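Dear colleagues,

As part of the handover before I leave the project, I'm documenting each prediction I ran so the next person doesn't have to rerun anything. This entry is a single chain, and its sequence is reproduced below.
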Amino acid sequence: MFFSFDKLKLYGILLFGVTLIITGIYRTYCRKKYEECRFQFYRDKDFFKELIGYSGWNLYGALAGVFKNQGINILLNIFFGPVVNAARGVAFQVNSAINQFVSNFYTAVHPQITKSYAVGERKEMMNLVFQSSKFCFYLMLFLSVPVLIETPFILKLWLTELPDYVVIFTRLVILNTLIDAMSYPLITAAQATGKIMKYQLIVGSMLFLNLPLSYILLKFGLPPEITLYVSIVISILCLFMRAFMLRSMVGMSVRAYFTDVILIAFSVSVISLVLPVIIYINLEENLIRLLIVTVVSLLSTGISIWFLGLSKNERGFFIRQINKRFFHRK
């Protein structure tokens, strides 16, 4: 053995080392590529005050996210021990693999929303917010439906023996991420304004409630999955609160967001699940059923998104992009 001490500590050290190396590569590349990425003394009290205020309130929101995730881990460890915590870790690992696709798409959209606000193109920004909210949700839904339906069998293939609560944890974590996926563009739109004190104070404080509410409910003897039900309810409330706050921040229509994004996304989700769930119920659990459910889920979700989830203009945009990229037609 190369190392004789605690392997968990070694894992933490290696993760830190990888992060440090990646950060160093980014820093070196940016210093050589961009002149503005050089350290120099600069003094502007008004600018510093504005910058510290913005970063400070962003820090408040980030801490709320840490309390929501890591705080719940601590609670579960106190009330149920490391086995339940391990099940939650597996659930988040599955969710992270699915969510990676959404993160890549969101990374591309994020600067466009900020740029549209900066140059005063409010209508363009709203279009981007509405469309990217739907597309983030659709990407997540497209990959999630077969996993949500066949969670037990997929986890058995991976783990052989399933820890307690791992199935319900996985399904609830994915549902929570589906809700949060619609919020990503709203968060970007709020941050683009630079005036985030009220926004972070309200939304961040709502996220902080995950910890005390979960503690109280666990104290009453409720099962560990109650922490995820609390998280889902708070995520829904935060989604609506972000929409209402953007009405005053950037003039967004809450009614239009509800009808054009939330209501359509919900309808697409329900229709996408019907046929795969019928197959899941009527076939015996095996690899063949997994393959059939996966194929039917992808087709069902794709068709629902295309005909119900996208407007005529959005379908036209995708057709033009396909023709341009694959058939070289303008």
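The mean pLDDT is 86. The radius of gyration is 22 Å.

All the best with the project,
I.
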